[in-house]
Amino acid sequence: MGRLALAAKITHVPSMYLSEFPGPNFGCRDAAINGHKEIDRRCRALGVDTIVVFDVHWQVNSEYHINCGPAFSGTYTSNELPHFIKNMPYAYPGNPVLGHLIGDMANEMGVKSRAHSDTTLGLEYGTLVPMRYMNADQHYKVISISGWCDWHDLRESGRFGLAVRRAIEERYDGTVAVFASGSLSHHFADNGRAPEFMHKVYDPFLEQVDRRVVELWKAGDWKTFIGMLPMYADKCWGEGDMHDTAMLLGLLGWDRYEAPVDIVTPYFGSSGTGQINAVFPVTPLPADAIA
């Protein structure tokens, strides 16, 4: 059937868009943008037709939600940082078929989910920013999945990720990439101090924990990382409580996953938060993956 060709944890910092324009921040996010372009290059080489994004800027309070409209277009301004992302045009095709396959599979596994194809629901910038640099020519169909899950359990999000993998491999006729779009630590600069932290992490403690996490990822020590994930998400203000990361790891085998990551854009600070672009090699799903 279908194939999961590429999986990655990616940044979506709004300063990427800001860095396109003349001014004091022009070019400051070239490394992150080039990382997205490299991931796009790999996806095209692998024949990817659809990108699924676990988007931590889409908040939900109940169930798991899949935005799989037939097409998305508009002009986007961030309500969070309207001076960073304003009047950004976008247009991408959707994939209702795969979206409903994911929803059906998750529900069959007991993870309550809803796929929305007949909807006016728009995309959030956790999806729109990476698509700007990977999909300007509308090469890929796009599905966005809620990754800011306020009242959900991280292990259940891992099971949702497994449902995404099973839907792709068992029921979909195509090739898919999946991105967890969110930060590592996510404490913003205090009000009035944002310029001071434009290229920094908020606190040395947060940066040191992030860097240790990256070392665990590079070593493929997923058992240790998953064991610390709930506390890490809590104490380091993980974006969206790091449900995007839990979904990504469920997709790959949870604590049975063993592959080391490939760092595409090295860890960097942005507005107080810790960021990275890292490809997680897709390996055969272990028979005893999270169930």
Describe the structure.
The chain is of the alpha/beta class. The protein has eight helices and ten strands. The strands form two sheets. It has an eight-stranded mixed beta sheet with strand order 6-3-7-2-8-1-10-9, with helices on both faces. A two-stranded antiparallel ribbon has the order 4-5. The two termini are 21 Å apart. The model has no long low-confidence stretch (mean pLDDT 97).
Q: Sheet bearing the most strands, described? A: 8 strands, mixed
Percent of residues in helices comes to 25-40%
Number of strands: 10
Tally of alpha and pi helices: 8
Beta-strand portion reads 15-25%
End-to-end gap: 21 Å
Shape verdict = globular
Tell me the strand order in the biggest sheet.
6-3-7-2-8-1-10-9
Stretches where pLDDT falls below 50 for ≥5 residues? none
Average pLDDT taken over every residue: 97
Quickly give the structural class. alpha/beta
Q: For the CA atoms, what is the radius of gyration?
A: 18 Å
H and E order: EHHEEEEHEHEHEHHHEE
